C-alpha cells in the first residue's frame, strides 16, 4: 500500500520554543491511526506542521514528495485537516461553507449530495448560517468541507471536544463510513474510546517525542496509559 504521509526526523518550534523533537512515522493509504498524548505533548503541532504553521525542520512528505512552503499544497496533494475549533465562516450558509472545500481542485467521489447523505442534519440546515448549527453539527460541517477537497488522508484534531455522547456516536458512524470509502484517518483525540473504535494502531507523543506505538488493542495497557494519562 502506498504511503500518504511521512514524517522524517521532524522538529517543530514556535519562536524558538521547541515542541516536536524529531519524530518519524508514516500513514499508508486507507489506514486509520490515533495520535494520543497528554495536553501540550505536541499532537496539534504534529498536524499543523504539515502546513508549515510552526517552524519545521526535517522532512514531511505527502504522496512521496517533500512539502514546499505553500499552505494549500498539502490539501492539493490529498491531505486535509479538520482543525480544532472547526473554523466555520459565520457569514456563509452551511452549503457555502461546504463548497469552499472544493477550492483544492482535486476530483473524486465527494459531492454535496454524498456529504448530505453522510450528514442528514446538514442537508436539513443547508441554507442556514454555519454558526447557527449546534456544536456537533458544526463539527460535521467542518468534516464535510474537508471531504470536498477529496483527501486521501483526513486529519482530525479533537473532533469530539465538547460534544454529547450521542453526538459522538454519530460522528464515529460517519467516520467509519468515510474510512470504508477508502480515506485514511489520522485522529488526535483525548477521548480514547473514539480511537479504540476507529483506529487500527496508535502513536503516542510525550513532550514532543514519539514514545510508544502499536496496534490499538495495546492502548489500554498500563504502560501506555501511564504515558498518555491526563
Ligand atoms: N501558536 C503557538 N504559538 C506558541 N506556542 C504554541 C502554539 N501552539 C502551541 N504551542 C505550544 O506548543 C506546545 C504543544 O501544543 P499542542 O497544541 O501541539 O499540544 P497538544 O498535544 O495538541 O495539546 P492539547 O491537547 O492541549 O491541544 C504547548 O506548550 C503549546 O503551548
From TrEMBL:
Gene3D superfamilies: P-loop containing nucleotide triphosphate hydrolases (3.40.50.300). GO terms for biological process: L-amino acid transport. One of its GO terms (molecular function) is ATP binding. InterPro entries: AAA+_ATPase, ABC_transporter-like_ATP-bd, ABC_transporter-like_CS, BCAA_Transport_ATP-bd_LivF, P-loop_NTPase. Residues 5-227 form the ABC transporter domain. The keyword Transport applies. PROSITE patterns: ABC_TRANSPORTER_1, ABC_TRANSPORTER_2. Pfam families: ABC_tran. Keywords: Amino-acid transport, ATP-binding, Nucleotide-binding, Transport. The keyword Nucleotide-binding applies. Belongs to the ABC transporter superfamily. This is ABC transporter ATP-binding protein.
Amino acid at each position: 500500500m502506498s504511503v500518504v504521509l511521512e514524517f522524517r526526523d521532524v522538529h517543530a518550534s514556535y519562536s524558538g520554543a521547541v515542541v516536536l523533537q524529531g519524530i518519524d512515522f508514516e500513514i499508508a493509504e486507507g489506514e486509520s491511526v490515533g495520535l494520543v498524548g497528554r495536553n501540550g505533548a505536541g499532537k496539534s503541532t504534529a498536524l499543523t506542521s504539515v502546513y508549515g504553521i510552526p517552524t519545521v525542520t526535517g522532512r514531511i512528505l505527502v504522496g512521496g514528495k517533500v512539502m514546499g512552503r505553500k499552505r494549500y499544497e498539502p490539501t492539493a496533494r490529498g491531505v486535509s485537516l479538520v482543525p480544532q475549533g472547526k473554523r466555520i465562516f459565520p457569514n456563509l450558509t452551511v452549503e457555502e461553507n461546504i463548497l469552499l472545500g472544493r477550492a483544492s481542485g482535486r476530483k473524486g467521489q465527494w459531492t454535496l449530495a454524498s456529504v448530505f447523505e453522510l450528514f442528514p442534519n446538514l442537508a436539513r440546515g443547508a441554507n442556514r448560517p454555519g454558526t447557527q448549527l449546534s456544536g456537533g453539527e458544526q463539527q460535521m460541517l467542518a468534516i464535510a468541507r474537508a471531504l470536498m477537497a477529496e483527501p486521501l488522508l483526513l486529519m482530525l484534531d479533537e473532533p469530539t471536544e465538547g460534544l454529547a455522547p450521542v453526538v459522538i456516536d454519530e460522528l464515529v458512524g460517519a467516520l467509519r463510513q468515510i474510512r470504508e470509502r477508502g480515506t485514511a484517518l489520522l485522529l488526535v483525540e483525548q477521548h480514547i474510546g473514539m480511537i479504540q473504535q476507529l483506529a487500527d494502531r496508535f502513536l503516542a507523543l510525550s513532550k514532543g517525542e514519539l514514545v510508544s506505538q502499536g496496534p490499538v488493542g495495546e492502548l489500554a495497557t498500563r504502560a501506555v496509559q501511564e504515558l498518555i494519562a491526563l
